[in-house]
Design a protein that fits this description.
The chain is mainly β. It contains two helices and 18 strands. The longest helix has 18 residues.
Amino acid sequence: MDKGTENAFGRKSELRLTAGWDGKETFLREIGFTAPFKIMTPFPCKDGGKEVMIMCASPGIMEGDSQWIRIETEKGARLAVTSQSYEKIHKMNNGRAYRNTILRIAGNSVLRYRPLPVIPFGGSAFESRTAIELEDESSELIYEELLSCGRAACGERFDYRFFHSLSEVSCKGKLIYRENNRSRPASWPMEELGLFEGYTHMAGMLIHMQVVKEKEREIRSLAEDAENAQEVQCGVTRTAAGDLVVRILGRRAETVRKICDEICSCMEYSVPGSE
């Protein structure tokens, strides 16, 4: 974080989570966090995995806040991670808030990282960096981000100072995907073609799973059906590494999230060692 972006009330907080596999089900080998982070008791999944909800005992992200998140899955583990509520990034004076996230997925394990939407309030400034490390091709991942224009119901549409989200995915140490989203509403026409195009919410989803090739047609069909039935725009792109990237523009977070849910539900996988 640059000097001058912190203030006396800024908080540094950390969250660490490691999921293991005991041959029958996923368990949490390591849990560690500092305020305001909390982790709700994990929910069991029918495939032997665990679903974890990250909670935050604060009204949202404030100026000067610095968050460090590290989540790892060991071989065989199945882990789904979500958040308790929408991420609110509050108004700031001259500084910013920062988040650094590291996701490590071992071979033959799965991580579904799908936090709820982000709402940048007017005057806010937020920088996020996510490094995703896949041990090999058998490491499976669904990674989702959903950004809103702000508090549209309060008349705030793209009133934040800036929002920067950099995500880099590597497999066996080689970079296979990079997403660098920078938004500066005061300088860029956020409502225009090539950006939000009059919509208020944008979701991005990266799918790195062994069944992605056989599921691609189904995912494209879901995206097409969503466009025909609802006021959304969807796009599905295959990367050079063979992964799928889904992009959705919509006017309601619930609508966009539901489409992401439908895509995730078709990406079924077997419990390791069950065959």
